[in-house]
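Work Package 3 (structural annotation) set out to generate three-dimensional models for the target panel prioritized at the project kickoff. During this period the team completed the workflow that converts sequence records into discrete structure tokens, so that structures can be stored uniformly alongside our sequence database. As a representative example, we reproduce one entry of 212 residues exactly as it appears in the project archive.
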Amino acid sequence: MSTSRILLLSLILGWTVGATAEVQPEAGEYGLGDPASEAEIAGWDIDVPPSGAGLPAGSGTAAQGEAVYNAQCAACHGPEGKDGAYPRLSGGQGTLASDKPVKTVGSYWPYATTLYDYIHRAMPFTAPQSLSADDTYAVTAYVLYINGIIDRDTTLDADTLAGIVMPNRDGFISPDPRPDVHNTACMDHCDERANGASGSAERKPDDGVPTM
């Protein structure tokens, strides 16, 4: 073996030993990462359920939201939530049982809080989570306004948003009849379940396992 190849092999071996020594965990621990701080967890914990729990402080009206909507949303959804290249947001009430249902925020969505949650997490498409809480309340109010659900000057905030009754609030069946949404989460011995083996591995909802 040539001297250069011996030297290269020695360097690789030395680097490998050194790298292994650097990541050796302490006994009983992985030695990687740090516990998430409350601030870091709060940054991810932004979902808003139908009840409105978790809505932030702030407020907005449709009158305030129109300018934000025109600047951030109209290019995709049209000036009044219609005729845009992306999903229609307004109109369609009374069409769900027809041959050509038009599913919009006003005709289909059951909870106004879900509208806030979606705008806050995912909009605008090019810069999600860039809107302030006030702007998000205002755009939410504007979308509800162009659907005829609230007045132009109605103020939305954490207290008033959850109280809005959407036109299709009672248009959903509960519990959800789709079989795939009630599967029991597999937490152990999953290979046995996948292969059809019976046993104690299958958990029941009362075991505290999410049933989604």
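Residues 199-212 have pLDDT under 50 and may be disordered.
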